[in-house]
Amino acid sequence: MPYPTDRERDRPWVMRTYAGHSSAAASNELYRRNLAKGQTGLSVAFDLPTQTGYDPDHPLAKGEVGKVGVPISHIGDMRRLFTGIPLAEANTSMTINAPAMWLLALYVTVAQEQADAEGRDRDEVLAKLTGTTQNDIIKEYLSRGTYIFPPAPSLRLITDVIAWTVHHIPKWNPINICSYHLQEAGATPTQEVAYALSTAIAVLDAVRDSGQVEPTDMAKVVGRISFFVNAGVRFVEEMCKMRAFTRLWDEITRERYGVEDPKARRLRYGVQVNSLGLTEAQPENNVQRIVLEMLGVALSRDARARAIQLPAWNEALGLPRPWDQQWALRMQQVLAYETDLLEYEDIFAGSHVIESKVDEIVAGARAEIEQVQDLGGAVAAVESGYMKSQLVASLAEYRRDVESGGRVIVGVNKFDTTEPSPLQAEGAKAIETVDPAVEKQAVAALEEWRQQRDQAAVDAALARLREVAKTSENLFDATLACAAAGVTTGEWAGTLREEFGEYRAPTGVSAAAMSGDAAELSRVRDRVRATGEELGEKLRILVGKPGLDGHSNGAEQVAVRARDVGFEVIYQGIRLTPEQIVAAAVQEGVHVVGLSVLSGSHLEVVPQVVDGLRAAGAGDIPVIVGGIIPPEDARLLTERGIARVFTPKDYELTEIMDEIVSVVRERHELPQD
Fold first, then answer.
1. Which CATH number does the domain housing residue 72 bear?
2. What cofactors are annotated for this protein (predicted)?
3. pLDDT digit string (tens) for 595-618?
4. Residue ranges making up the domain that contains 297
5. In a domain, 494, yes or no
6. Residues 526 and 404 in one domain
7. Which end of the chain is less enclosed by CB atoms within 10 A, N or C?
8. Distance CA 35, CA 16 (A)
9. Does one domain contain both 220 and 97?
């Protein structure tokens, strides 16, 4: 998005909604409707199997296909996704990280096919491609959890994508360094700025040191780096955060990388406002939250976002409907076109209050960046667990403030009396649901694809990919060949898994300090100790993340609080099969299994754990579940034998621990005290 060069009215930012579900065909229809409503950019949500490099028929994909995004298994799916959408004229953001190279290769291949169909020069079309691949794997280890490979080969993939795009698709943003999920994982404004910029330093150092880009071209690289940030409801603080971000980025790119062009040093960023800050309780309040959060990144012209996507009011309940997404888009359009916001220069320039807060964030972020650099940089700070433990501790402190009432959340811990909501009236379909048949259709279509493609070409392309992976050669051309040959997402990622290995990131739980109200903690701790004495052993809880859902923040906080009240906690991190969870529960002899699912796959994966425990002769171990679970689904889970269902409205973690003790006592027929 170009910047005005004088005092003319500022140009509106790119307006997007994060969208995609069920299938490429259904998502294409949604995109075309959204564009017709005035959306000026596309933001593609991929489903979890695609994000983690699995095909729909992989065991870990069960229950996850098409739930939180669109499944893209091969070039045929990418063609369908963009049918009728000229890519040379589109502005597309793809929220994809570990397999970012693969999805970008599919996108580029479709653009080349469109050029051929129109009789246009391929290079001319590629030179016009605009958009972003998120491609930030470091924050995946810290917060979102959709990593595949260890940090070093992951950084190589990022570097290769950046180098290839600079030479071949110069208007594309090859990485969207993403502080968004850091805030959701507990980052303070200072940590969000510091850890995102530490990631940027690691990436730029890797590109510079790879030899794939001439030193004179580093300004081109810096000029294509973009950021994706989170905007919370404390909009003055968020605005100051972005002004601090802007100042530090200008400083780092000038001093560390010698970029002289001030335009290349501009902080170019897009925003999604804080989805995990939306509430299940009184969800209509989310509308004003979203608007206020948008203001934090729109009010300050000198640090204004150049792309904004807003969640819908009901994302704490489930998948938004097209109408809900339209409402979110209209919020942006009213601000951009009806108000006078874009008519003025920066309205906060010279404010001593704003400058003081910006200075505070800048100073704190500088110190934290230095700490990360002293540890060896962002990758080393991931591998040591330092950054993860800092985030877990910050989130624990935030939750303590919420539970004590020090931080007010309207409708949750204050002003919680309410009238019935007409938005959720009986008979109203408040969220979109994905037909369970979607997964079967995707698996069948994948099998058909494998039958009709040229298997010899596929084998040759994968063999070439494997050979290049063993060298330091750029992997993008080999990946392009895989895309054209009809290789699947799982095959591309599987081949690189064989060469690079897989990775399990530190959880950060062990380093988190004790949190929660001391008196209430003491009371529940006494119950845990007494129950253990009655059973003759210490109470043990297994906290599990079945399936591909990488949103581990809630599970980590449950694990921390369970430890604080005296449970022995078994928490092995994300991405476990139901079979692995059952095996661990039996081996560890746990007294309760707690499952966390936020991806919508609860009806598929949770009953598998219950059935597995029964089959293993451990059906007496109660299973509880927490996540974004609609009331009807909660009833179904209870009928399937789930002992308790907790949703985001259950924010008091110590109360949840108390209830878990009651579940254990019920199962062992002990009197409730």
1. 3.20.20.240
2. adenosylcob(III)alamin
3. 998 878 888 889 999 999 999 999
4. 14-413
5. no
6. no
7. C
8. 9
9. yes
What does DSSP assign to residue 504?
A: -
> Out of 21, 62, 74, 181, which one is annotated catalytic?
181
pLDDT band at 4 (very low <50, low <70, confident <90, very high): very low
CB 482 within 8 A of CB 494: no
Residue 388 in tokens: 């993860």
- Residue-wise pLDDT for 255-314, tens only, equals 999 999 999 999 999 998 888 788 888 999 999 999 999 999 999 999 999 999 899 998
Find the catalytic residue in 58, 62, 388, 551.
Answer: 551
> Which DSSP string do the residues of 138-167 spell out, in sequence order?
HHIIIII----S-HHHHHHHHHHHHHHHHH
* Domain total in the chain: 2
| DSSP assignment letter at 546 | B
Catalytic one of 545, 591, 633, 651: 545
Of 395, 413, 431, at which residue does a domain stop? 413
DSSP 3-state assignment of 124?
Answer: helix
- Shared domain for 37 and 169, answered yes or no, is yes
Question: Residue 323 has what DSSP assignment?
Answer: H
Catalytic residue among 31, 107, 147, 180: 180
> Average of pLDDT values for 19-33?
90
Neighbouring CB atoms inside 10 A of 235's CB total 19
What are the distances in angstroms from CA 384 to CA 225, 250, 523? 26, 29, 35
The catalytic position among 77, 160, 324, 549 is 549
Pinpoint the alpha helices (H) of 211-346: 218-224, 235-255, 285-296, 322-333
pTM to 2 decimal places: 0.88
Count other C-beta atoms under 10 Å from residue 444's C-beta: 12
Known catalytic residue: 551? yes
Long-range contact set of residues 436-443: C-beta below 8 Å, sequence gap at least 24: 438/22, 438/23, 438/65, 438/66, 439/56, 439/61, 439/62, 439/63, 439/65, 439/66, 441/23, 442/23, 442/56, 442/65, 442/66, 442/71, 442/73, 443/56, 443/57, 443/65
Pair (403, 523) in one structural domain: no
Establish whether 344 is a catalytic residue: no
> Are 148 and 503 within 8 A, CB to CB?
yes
Integer Cα distance of 651 and 419 in angstroms: 21
Q: Quote the pLDDT of residue 3.
A: 45
Q: Specify whether 180 is catalytic.
A: yes
d(C-alpha 589, C-alpha 608), whole Å: 19
Domain boundary among 345, 380, 413: 413
Contact (Cβ atoms closer than 8 angstroms) between residue 44 and residue 70:
yes
- Report which of 259, 43, 249, 46 is spatially closest to residue 146, judged by C-alpha positions: 46
> In DSSP terms, which residues pair with 92 in a beta bridge?
42, 131
Q: 663 forms bridges with which residues in the sheet?
A: none
pLDDT tens figures, 464-486: 999 999 999 999 999 999 999 99
Q: Are 466 and 30 in contact (CB under 8 A)?
A: no
CA triple 405-388-230, angle to 5 deg: 60
The answer to whether residue 592 scores a pLDDT higher than 60 is yes
Q: Is residue 319 part of a domain?
A: yes
Question: Residue 167 catalytic?
Answer: no
- The three-class DSSP label of residue 43 is strand
Active site residue 549: yes
Q: Alpha carbon of 259 to those of 166, 252, 547: distances in Å?
A: 16, 9, 44
